[in-house]
TrEMBL record:
<dbReference type="InterPro" id="IPR050445">
    <property type="entry name" value="Bact_polysacc_biosynth/exp"/>
</dbReference>
<feature type="region of interest" description="Disordered">
    <location>
        <begin position="404"/>
        <end position="484"/>
    </location>
</feature>
<feature type="compositionally biased region" description="Polar residues">
    <location>
        <begin position="473"/>
        <end position="484"/>
    </location>
</feature>
<feature type="compositionally biased region" description="Basic and acidic residues">
    <location>
        <begin position="404"/>
        <end position="430"/>
    </location>
</feature>
<protein>
    <recommendedName>
        <fullName>Polysaccharide chain length determinant N-terminal domain-containing protein</fullName>
    </recommendedName>
</protein>
Length: 484
């Protein structure tokens, strides 16, 4: 994993890190103001050579330096603590006195610093004074011996400025924030690894190993809008068809396999065949989703000139049509079509629809912006199992599913009705239709002015093609494998 990927994980899971830091600061603040306070008091004693000793100043300093470690060890002993505990005004046991007192030599001097800690400032001060008096008393001299030649006297008594040394609010809050940051940096990648849902389009791209081809979403996220603005992602159906090699280069029948995630893809498939048919292409939409084929939209779509909708399930419930059965179910010869769109809205739920990948030139994954990672992986492996590769993916709205109704795409203008193949409508040649419906599924920004060559033929509401009752106009196989 590269450093860029690690930083991206932390950027996606930043709220885990921020929450952990805030929680650490809150815990540190609570502990700083709820734990019992510890007060500290200091006093000092100085060690020198007795006047009775006839030594030089240099010899005196060396002699005291040699004896001070012994003095410190005596001051830390249990006997010394017992004597301090017996001092009037000290209401602590010998063990408590021993744990509350600390002795240390002040660097480059012969001064012994005495520190007393207690939960009461007065007790800390009394304890520090009692220790300095005891260390300068005859007790310590008797421990060193009468011939030691040392004198110990109180240099500084414990003052009134006794302060609380624990807990330190600043230190507790700082360490709480650092502890929270550490926990957040550990939890963020763990949470990211356990998350089954991808967070943005870059996650989809990394999972399926293919590029983003187009966007069909009326309300894309900010990151998706930014990606569309900074890359050559198709936001209109004609541009997407051009990128897929359907228009602009007539090389026989072009077959597209749309592999949906979680039931999406119906609207995209409809837009592709409608726009291609408006350009004068003969199109077939092969769908293995019987529920979608029962909707009014698909019944209307089957009446548009140049479009054949094929029910690949045929109501049999025993699997999809393939091979000769599929060819027999098509109203026209297979080679007479310019574009065939094979639609499987959910390969995970119905993996048998992946059989169409064997007949497709291009395999495209159609997904919402935040699918399940496991669904992406299963779909990718199904495509690979048929010897194909994922040629790209298209992000659509989650409303692009059965029963959701027609939804506008990102920056879409209102859709225009296409002329049906009812005989009451006049015939339209391929040349004139090519310019009359280029705007049929345009996903560009609504604020963009239409170009002059875009003539939109709108069918008035009163002349819309009526739905002819049932799904009989969708080509279905009969029991003998032929056509109805």
């Amino acid at each position: 994993m590269s450093g860029q990927q690690i930083m991206r994980i932390y950027a996606l899971r930043r709220w885990w890190v921020i929450t952990s830091v805030l929680a650490g600061i809150i815990v540190g603040s609570v502990l700083a103001f709820t734990l019992p306070s510890i007060y500290e008091s200091r006093s000092q004693a100085i060690v020198s050579v007795s006047d009775r000793t006839n030594v030089t100043a240099g010899e005196s300093a060396a002699y005291v330096g040699d004896r001070i470690p012994t003095i410190l060890e005596i001051a830390k002993s249990a006997d010394f603590a017992r004597v301090v505990a017996e001092t009037p005004g000290v209401d602590l046991s010998a063990s408590e006195v021993r744990s509350a007192l600390q002795f240390a030599l002040v660097p480059e001097t012969t001064v012994i610093g005495i520190t007393a800690n207690a939960d009461d400032p007065n007790v800390a001060r009394q304890l520090a004074d009692a220790a300095s008096e005891t260390i300068s008393d005859s007790f310590l001299i008797s421990q060193l011996g009468p011939d030691s030649g040392l004198e110990i006297s109180v240099l500084q008594e414990a003052g009134e400025g006794t302060s609380a040394v624990f807990p330190d609010p600043v230190r507790f809050i700082a360490f709480g924030g650092l502890a929270g940051l550490t926990v957040g940096l550990i939890l963020a990648p763990l949470r990211h690894g356990l998350d089954r849902r991808v967070r943005d389009v870059r996650d989809i791209r990394n999972t399926v190993g293919a590029q983003l081809l187009g966007v069909r979403d009326a309300a894309p996220s900010r990151s998706l809008r930014r990606m569309v603005a900074n890359s050559g992602v198709a936001t209109s159906t004609p541009v997407l068809l051009a990128r897929l090699g359907v228009v602009g280069s007539r090389t026989g029948t072009r077959a597209l396999a749309l592999c949906g995630i979680e039931g999406v893809g119906n609207e995209l498939a409809s837009d592709l065949v409608e726009t291609a048919a408006a350009s004068g292409l003969n199109c077939a939409l092969v769908s293995a989703d019987p529920a979608a084929l029962q909707t009014a939209h698909y019944r209307e779509l089957s009446q548009v000139r140049g479009i054949d909708v094929v029910d690949a399930d045929g109501g049999r419930g025993g699997g999809i049509l393939s091979g000769r059965d599929l060819v027999a179910a098509m109203p026209r010869p297979y080679d007479s079509y310019d574009l065939i769109v094979y639609l499987g809205t959910d390969l995970v739920a119905r993996p048998d629809a992946s059989l169409y990948l064997d007949r497709a030139d291009v395999a495209i994954i159609v997904t919402g912006e935040a699918p399940e990672r496991s669904d992406l992986l299963v779909t990718r492996e199904l495509i690979r199992a048929h010897g194909s590769a994922v040629d790209g993916f298209v992000v659509v709205s989650r409303n692009d599913r059965v029963g959701s109704g027609r939804s506008r795409a990102y920056g879409d203008r209102p859709r225009r009705a296409v002329k049906s193949r009812e005989r009451t409508e006049p015939d339209i040649s391929r040349g004139s239709r090519s310019s009359s419906i280029r705007e049929a599924a345009d996903w560009r920004d609504a604020s963009e002015p239409a170009t002059a060559e875009m003539e939109v033929v709108a069918v008035p509401r009163s002349r819309e093609v009526p739905v002819r009752g049932s799904v009989d106009h969708i080509t279905q196989p009969n029991s003998a494998g032929g056509q109805k």
